[in-house]
Design a protein that fits this description.
Number of strands: 4
Number of helices: 5
CATH superfamily: Response regulator
Radius of gyration: 15 Å
Largest sheet: 4 strands, parallel
Bound molecules: 4-nitrophenyl phosphate
CATH class: Alpha Beta
CATH topology: Rossmann fold
Distance between the termini: 12 Å
Shape: globular
Number of domains: 1
Oligomer: single chain
Structural class: alpha/beta
Strand order of the largest sheet: 2-1-3-4
Helix content: 25-40%
Mean pLDDT: 97
Order of helices and strands: EHEHHEHEH
Length: 160
């Protein structure tokens, strides 16, 4: 039997603030668990303004403070083919999820969901957009995404 490999994509609006943190943190946790070869991990934005650009320097900095390197990532835009490629597509907020659902069709591969629905406390709901925020906002985004990535890995490792 070939080993199961799961493809996971994190999605926000611009793919420069929140979803690069999802990609980087999840990859870091997967590596710490010794499961790198069992996952394909990516991120994308529903908008295309930042395609090819590195993440926002404030996301790079908060990740680095927590030992996660996201500096090498480059912005990508979501398209319909991602829903046939990835097993799990995790949106940062409800608006992202609505935009992803525009590509939905019957028989697609991907399960779509909100990243913070991985947490038992569903009241948290959405990862707030920190683009017009402060370093403190980026720290709280990091903490939310990190907690949800830990829970996501616990859920997905049962499927490997
Ligand atoms: P992100 O934040 O969706 O977390 O990457 C944003 C980044 C850029 C823009 C909006 C949100 N923008 O309008 O360019």
């Amino acid at each position: 039997m070939p080993e199961t490999r799961l493809a996971v994509e994190f999605v926000c609006l611009g793919n420069i603030c929140r979803s690069p943190l999802g990609e980087g943190i999840f990859r870091h946790r997967v590596a710490q668990a010794g499961l790198t070869h069992r996952f394909e991990i990516a991120s994308a934005g529903t908008g295309g303004w930042h395609v090819g650009e590195p993440p926002d320097p404030r996301s790079v900095a908060v990740a680095r403070r927590h030992g996660v390197d996201i500096a090498g990532q480059r912005g990508r835009q979501l398209d319909w083919a991602h829903l046939d490629h990835y097993d799990e597509i995790l949106a940062m907020d409800e608006s992202n999820l609505r935009n992803i659902r525009r590509f939905e069709r019957s028989g697609q591969r991907a399960r779509l969901g909100l990243l913070l629905d991985e947490l038992p406390d569903r009241r948290l709901g959405e990862v707030p957009d920190p683009y017009y925020g402060t370093d403190r906002d980026f720290e709280s985004v990091f903490a939310l995404v990190d907690a949800a990535c830990a829970a996501l890995l616990e859920r997905l490792r049962t499927r490997l």
